Amino acid sequence: MIPGALIWGKVADRLGRRRSMMLGFILYGVFSMASAFSVNYPMLWTMRFCAGLGLSGVLVTAFPYFIELLPVQARGKATVYLASGWPIGFLIAIGVTYLFTALGWRWSVGVSSLAGLWSLAILCLPESPYWLCGQGRQDEAKQVINYLSGQHFTQELATRPLQVDAFKQGSYLETVKGIFLKITLVQILINFAFSWGYWGLTSWMPILLGKRGLSSPQGLKFMAISAVFMFPGYIASSYLTGKFGRKRVMFWFVLMSAVAGFGFACSRSLAQMYLFNFALSFFSLGAWGVWDTWMAELYPTEIRGVSYSLGLCAQRLANTLAPITIGAMLAANTSFPVTVSFISVFLVITFISSLFLPETEGQILT
Question: Is the domain of 93 the same as that of 202?
Answer without folding.
Answer: yes
